[in-house]
């Protein structure tokens, strides 16, 4: 961090609350401009941005169509959720991408707000009140979302009642000490045990991330989401897929649950939906959305939901994903990127697992291959800082490097990133004396 950027940060922190992510604080950057997959700071230094706002940067920084649409809308009108060309365009573009069964969209401002709304919808449609969520998941920091978010409640008192939690299908760190596929998806059977022992018989929904983002881009094995679909049906409950990080092509399909050929009852969209503009959505069938309290006038509304600037952003993002085939592009580029990383980093002692789906990739770092002890934060920060010095900006989560290139990134950019990441990890592994894999 240059002296000028340090002074800038000090000025901001003297006036601002502590709501800055750890990786952003570690980077200490003051950004002047950005384009595509690159950001440039006020000192003129450019970085390949694999942080992307933790998966927000879906179609690239300063995408020309995006800038033009938002600029035009700013000059027209901004305030109000009246009908508009922007909203109709956003709804039509989403309809062209989403499964036919998910034919109604309600707009919100944040992911947590959409989670709360999705759960209200499930309660309204089923007449029940319990939610089953998963260890390691992240859904936000409002009441229901916080209760369903693992490891985020310390010091905040009792969680909202009615939320049950169970292990996710995290095969590298299976809490059941099982091994897939021999386990036969033991985590789903454990979830069934949790419901039998802890539920009051009023399960409204199963809330799940099809890829767990904050936990380190944890990809469940094939069949997990399908088994959850069956479990929800068994309990006459709804399946809510929280696609805030994964939706609109990030993992190689428009909705990540499609990798298991699953269509959820309710899907939550966010992050990349606005490509930087804060907007989220709940999507479901017309039948569900019209039921009970949720279907009454104003019962599911939001102060800023459906405002024209947000809808302009959504329309451009959805149209770009559709017209440029970005979901399929993400699948192909992501597979190549993952193969490249695995080829370059097969014997580095601090690498425990390299995983991903599409352009959501995680590199989990450990101190020991046998015990899989997470790399201490100080050493993780050393890797992060060295990557930044070499021009690559990443996200972190736990002891994992989380990589979120825009879906418009180039193969050359990803190849360059893979080489830098491999060199950096090799150097860090040697410097801390971690043993190499045989």
Task: Identify the notable features of this structure and list them briefly.
alpha/beta; Aspartate Aminotransferase, domain 1; 2 domains; Aspartate Aminotransferase, domain 2; 438 residues; single chain; 7-stranded mixed sheet; 14 helices
Please give a structural write-up.
The structure is a single chain. The chain has 438 residues and is α/β, with parallel strands linked by helices. It folds into two domains: 3-63 and 325-431, Aspartate Aminotransferase, domain 1, CATH 3.90.1150.10; 77-323, Type I PLP-dependent aspartate aminotransferase-like (Major domain) (Aspartate Aminotransferase, domain 2), CATH 3.40.640. Helix content is 37%, strand content 16%. It has 14 helices and 15 strands. The chain has helices at 3-13, 22-27, 52-55, 64-74, 85-97, 111-126, 143-147, 186-198, 224-234, 286-289, 308-323, 326-344, 377-389, 411-431; strands spanning 31-35, 38-41, 46-49, 104-108, 130-134, 163-166, 203-208, 238-243, 266-269, 280-284, 351-357, 360-365, 392-393, 395-397, 400-403. Helix 4 (64-74) runs antiparallel to helix 11 and helix 13 (377-389) crosses helix 14. The protein is globular and about 60 Å long.
Give a brief outline of the structure.
It is built from 14 helices and 15 strands.
């Amino acid at each position: 961090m240059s002296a000028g950027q340090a002074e800038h940060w000090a000025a901001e922190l003297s006036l601002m609350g502590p709501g800055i992510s750890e990786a952003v604080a570690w980077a200490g950057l003051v950004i002047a401009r950005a384009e595509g997959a690159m950001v440039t700071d006020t000192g003129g230094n450019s970085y390949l941005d694999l942080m992307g706002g933790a998966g927000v940067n879906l179609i690239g920084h300063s995408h020309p169509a995006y800038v033009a649409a938002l600029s035009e809308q700013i000059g027209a009108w901004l305030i109000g959720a009246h009908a508009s060309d922007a909203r109709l365009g956003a709804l039509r573009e989403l309809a062209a991408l989403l499964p036919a069964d998910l034919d109604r969209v309600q707009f919100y401002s944040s992911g947590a707000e959409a989670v709360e709304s999705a759960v209200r919808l499930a309660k309204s449609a089923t007449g029940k009140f319990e939610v089953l969520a998963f260890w390691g998941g992240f859904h936000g920091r409002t009441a229901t979302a916080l209760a369903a978010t693992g490891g985020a409640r310390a010091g905040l008192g009792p969680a909202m009642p009615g939320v049950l939690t169970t292990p996710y299908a995290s095969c590298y760190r299976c809490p059941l000490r099982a091994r897939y596929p021999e386990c036969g998806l033991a985590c789903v059977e454990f979830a069934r045990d949790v419901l039998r022992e802890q539920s009051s018989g009023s399960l409204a929904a199963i809330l799940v991330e099809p890829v767990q983002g904050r936990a380190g881009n944890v990809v469940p094995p094939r069949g997990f989401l399908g088994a959850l679909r069956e479990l929800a049906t068994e309990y006459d409950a709804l399946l809510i897929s929280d696609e805030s990080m994964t939706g609109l092509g990030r993992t190689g399909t428009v909705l990540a649950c499609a990798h298991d050929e699953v269509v959820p009852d309710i899907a939550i969209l966010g992050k990349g939906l606005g490509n930087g503009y804060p907007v989220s959505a709940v999507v479901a069938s017309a039948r569900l959305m019209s039921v009970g309290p949720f279907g009454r006038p104003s019962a599911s509304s939001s102060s800023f939901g459906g405002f024209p600037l947000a809808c302009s952003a959504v329309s451009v993002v959805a149209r770009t994903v559709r017209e440029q085939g970005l979901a399929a592009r993400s699948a192909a580029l992501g597979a190549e990127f993952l193969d490249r990383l695995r080829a370059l980093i097969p014997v580095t002692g601090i690498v425990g697992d390299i995983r991903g789906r599409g352009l959501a990739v995680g590199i989990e770092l450990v101190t020991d291959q046998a015990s899989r002890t997470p790399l201490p934060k100080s050493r993780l920060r050393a890797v992060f800082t060295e990557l930044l010095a070499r021009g690559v900006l990443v996200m972190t989560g736990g002891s994992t490097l989380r990589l979120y290139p825009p879906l418009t990134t180039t193969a050359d950019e990803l190849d360059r990133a893979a080489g830098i990441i491999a060199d950096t990890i090799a150097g860090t592994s040697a410097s801390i004396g971690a043993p190499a894999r045989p």
